Amino acid sequence: MRIFVHVDMTQVTLYLALWGAIGPLVGILVGHLLTRSWQREQWLLDCRKEEFRELLTVLTRSFATICCYGGMGVMNGNDMRAREAAHTDAQTTIRDRIYIADDIAKLDIYRIWKTATDEFQSDHTLIAFSEKYALIRAMIVNTATEKL
Predict the structure, then answer these.
(1) By CB atoms within 10 Å of each CB, which of 79, 90, 100, 139 scores lowest?
(2) Is residue 73 part of a domain?
(3) Residue at 128 is within a domain
(4) How far is CA 11 from CA 7, 8, 17, 21, 110, in A?
(5) Of 25-34, 64-73, 94-103, where does the model show the most confidence?
(6) Is 19 among the domain residues?
């Protein structure tokens, strides 16, 4: 038993002509959407990298300033302002991150930093403060390199 399928060649020609005109447009549209998606992902990764870098820079600068002025017995007004500015800069930077806010919250960076600076301010033990700073730095670097 044979089954005959009748194909109208004019319809096939019409479909091929339409696909010839529409096919490249569909390809361009899909390519555009994929490129746009990749560019957005890359932009977000760049923003995260920049925020991690800024956070490390401010924390390192603040750590050095607090260490410099934290062990002094008597400080003049400029020294006290520099130390307080270092505290404020670090806390502000920890809290004002946008793209890495979830990472900072999960790592509990603010609490660790605040505890470290409060303890250093009361007992002036540089080794303990340095160890907590090193822990914070390692957590940030690990998270940044893991996610990027």
Answers:
(1) 79
(2) yes
(3) yes
(4) 8, 6, 10, 15, 69
(5) 94-103
(6) no
List Cα–Cα distances, 52 to 60, 74, 88, 90, in angstroms. Answer: 12, 35, 18, 13
Q: Match 């957005």 to its residue by tokens.
A: 40
Domain count, the chain: 1
The pLDDT value given to residue 23 = 76
Evaluate whether residue 119 is within a structural domain. yes
Cα separations in angstroms, 76 against 1, 23, 32, 35, 117: 106, 75, 61, 57, 20
Range of the domain at 59: 46-147
Q: What is the pTM of this model?
A: 0.75
Cα Rg of the chain, angstroms: 29
The DSSP 8-state label assigned to residue 140 in this structure reads H
